[in-house]
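Dear colleague,

As promised, here are the two records you asked about, laid out in our usual form so they can be pasted straight into your sheet.

NAME FIELD: protein one
SEQUENCE, THEN STRUCTURE:
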Amino acid sequence: MRNISEMPGVLIPCAAEPKLAKLPSEVNEQGAAVVSAQRCPYLHAAYTPTLPLHMDSVIVDQEVTVEFVRFLSAQLKESREQVDALDQENVALKSQLQKLASYITSPATAQDAHKVSELQGAVASLTEKLGASQATVEQQSMEIALWRTRYDAVQQLKTTAAIQSIRNLQKHATTQKLLATMRGELANAPSLAASATVSECEEFKLFMSKLGTSSSATEDNDRESRIVFDLPKLQILPKAAVKACGGKFDHFAGLVEWCAAPSRNALLFCPERLYDPSAASAGRPPWAETTEWSSLVGQHHELFAVEDGKLAYVGTFLFHAGPAALALPELPAASNNDLIEELARRTFRPESKSQHAKAKAYLPALAELYRQGAARVRVLGLQRIGFNDVFFQVLRKAYAKRGKQAAHKAKGAHVSHEAEQREETETERSTSPVAEGVVGKKRARGLEEGAAGGGRGEGLGKVARVDGFKR
C-alpha cells in the first residue's frame, strides 16, 4: 500500500471555492486515508473512508460523486455561457467586418468622385499657391537685400556727405577768415592810378578788333595742322624752337578774350597787384604793384592757345597798352570763372615754399576778391602781326616725332592711343622759359645765355603758375 501523500490528490468541491481543489489527505494508524470534515463541508463529520486508496483506482462515496458531478455541471454551464457570449461577440465583429469590406470594395459613386475631384483641385490650388508664395518670398527677400544695400549706401552717403559738409564749412570759414584779412591788407596798400571806366574798356576792345591782322598760308590751311601738343598746357619746347622765337613765347590760358571774327586780335586781362602772404614777416606789404605785365607793351611774342583740348600755335602777337585798374564785376568778363581763377593763380606769388603748399587755401579767397571788385585788373591788347613758320615747323616736326615714338611703343595701336602715349612723353610746363630767367641768379644766367644765342630771351615768362586752385 502507498501512502496517500505519495498519490495524486482527490479533487473535492469546497464551499469557499467552487472550483476544483486539491484536498490534502491524512493517514490514520491503520494507514487508511481520512478526509477531514473541516477540509470539505460536503462530507459527514463521522465519515471516514475505510477502504484503502490504490494507485490504479479511486473508490469514493456516492454522495461525493454526486457533489462532484454537480460541480462539474455548474462549471460546464458557466463555460457554455461564456462560449455563447463569445459567439455573439464574434458574430457582431463579423457583421462589422463585412460592412467595412463592402464599403471598401463597393464602387465609388458620382458624389464621391465629385468630392475626390474637388479635393484634388483644392490640393492642386494649394500647391500652386504655395509655389507662388515661395516665389514671392524669394523675390521679396531679394528686394529686401537690395533695399538693405541701398539703405547702407544711403547711410554711407549721408555719413560721407556729413563729413564733406563739415569740411566745406571749415573750408568756407577758413576762406572767409583769409578773405577778411586779405581785404584789410589790400585796403592798406598804396592806391593805384586812376581807375578806367567800363566805356573806356569797350572802346579799347573796339579799337583792337579794327586793328589789322596778318595770316599765313600754313596757318590758314588746316586747323588741326596748328596743333603742336596733345596736352592743353604749355610743354618744354625744343631748343631750336626757342632759338627761332628768341625765347619770346607765352600761353596765357584763361586770361585771353578774343575779339569777334574776322578779327584775330584779343584782349589780355592781367592782375594789377601780386600777393605774397609771407611778405609781412619780412617787413614788406603783402600786396605789391607789379609792372611785369605793363612792361610787355611794345614787345611781340609767339602765342599758344587751346583748341579742341589741345595746344596750338596761333601766331606772333604785339602787345598794346590798355585801360588799367578796372573792377571786374563791371565788365562782361565778370561771369568768366576760368578768367577769375586764372587771375587768382597769377596773383598768388609767395616766395617761400611753405606758402606755395597753402595755395588751396589762398586761391579761393583771391578769386572772391576779384569777384567783389576789391582786386583790380589791367587790360592789354594783343594784335596778331604774323606767323613764325620756322618756329612752327620745328614744333610740328617734334610733334610728329613724338607721335612716331608713341606708335612704335604701342606697336600699331589706335591713333587715340598714340596721342595718349605722346602726352606721357611730354613734360608739363606752364610758362615761357623767358620769364623764369628774371627770378633768381640761375635764371638770370639763363637770360645771359639767351642773349648769347642759347635760346633764352626776355618776356613775361617770369609769371609763375600755380595749379593748385580748386573751387
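NAME FIELD: protein two
SEQUENCE, THEN STRUCTURE:
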Amino acid sequence: MVFGDLEAEFVDMPVLPRARPDAACVRADAAEIASDPLRLLRRPPPHHARAASSSASASPARRSRSASPHYGEPSEKLKREESIRTNRRNKFVDCLAREDVDMAELRKLAWSGIPDDLRPLAWQLLLGYLPLATRLRASTLERKRGEYQSLVELTFAKGKDGLDQQIWHQIEIDVPRTRPGVQLWMHAATQRCLERILYVWAIRHPASGYVQGINDLATPFFQVFLSAYVDADPEDVDPAILPARVLAAAEADAFWCLSRLLDGIQDNYISAQPGIQRSVRRMAELVARIDAPLAEHLAAQGVEFMQFAFRWMNCLLMREISVRNTVRMWDTYLAEGADAFSQFHLYVCSAFLVRWSDKLREMDFQGIIMFLQSLPTQDWTDHEIEMLLSQAFVLNSIWHNAQSHFSGK
C-alpha cells in the first residue's frame, strides 16, 4: 500500500557545486572500522569534521565577526569554544570506551549534540542496534549485516519482475527525488542502496508497505554511517569509491537503524496514518494555547494545520531543514528516548511554527501556505536548531504532564 502522496510538495534546493573527493578520501582503516567501531575513538577527528563542527555551531553573525580582522575578541571566543568542544569530545570518548556503556550518561551527553566523528557509534548505541557491552558488538554486527544481506538476496533473487510492482514503482519515483541538489544522493551507488533499504523494509511491514516520506528518514542514517569511512564531507562523496564490504556494512546498518526508528512511529504509516492525524490535532491545540493570536489568524484565513503540518510529521521536518540540521536534531531526539520522534517532535513542530508567528500574522491564506512550504532555513546552523530544541524542551516540560488537556488523543 502507498499512502500520503507528497508529490506536489517536492522543492528543489540548489546548492553550489563542490569538488568530488576521489578514492583518496577513503580511510585506510575503513574495513577495520566496519568490524570494530571503537576504532573511531582511537584517532583524532578528521579535519573536515572539526571545520564543519565549528562552522555549524556558530550563528551567521558570529561567523561573520570571527572572519573579520577587525574583531580580535571573537578569536579568543573561538579558542574557548574549541576548548569546550575538545572537553566534550573527551567525555564522549570516556563514555563510549567503557566495557559497558552507561546509557543514562550517553543520553545526557548526546542531548547537546554529538561530535561528528563519534556519531556513527553513538547513534547505533542510542538506538539499541549495538549492545552496550563491548564484547558483544562484533558478533552482533556480523549477524545483523549477514541477516540483511540474506534478505536482499532473497528479495531480489528473481530480479525486478519478482517484486511488488506498485511498491517498487513508487520507490523508483521517490529515490531520485531524495535530497535534490545534494551530490551524495545523486550518485547511482547511493540510490541503489536506498532502493534496497526501502523495498526490503516495505515487504517486511505489510501493514504499511512503502509510504512516501520514509525515503527521507533513511538519509540521515546512511549519511552518518558513511561518514565513519571517509575523511571528507559525506555529502560530497560517491559511495562507489568504498570497498564493497564497507559499503554493504553502511547500507545494512542504515536499514536496521531506520527499522528501529520506524518501529516507534509505526502508526504514522499504516492505513489512514492515525499517528500523524493525532499529532497534527494535538499540535493545533497546543499552538492555540501558547500563541492564541497566531492560531486565531490561521483560523480566520482558513488555514488548516493538516495543510502544512502533515508533512512536518510525516517527514520529521526533513523537507524544511537540511540533512546537517536534521542530524543535529536527531542527536537530541535519540537522547530523549524511544518516544521522541512522536512525542517530543510535536513540541519541536509547535515551536517551529510559533517562531514565524509575527510574519505569518501579516499574511493572507495564499501567503501563509507559500511561506510554510518554502521556509527560509537554508542558512540555519546548529545555533538555530539548538534554540528550537530548547524552546521545545520548555514546552514539553510544561505540557507533557497535562495530556488530559488535549482532546486530540
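A couple of things worth noting about protein two: Residues 1-5, 7-19, 61-69 have pLDDT under 50 and may be disordered. The CA atoms of residues 351 and 391 lie 6 Å apart.

Best,
R.
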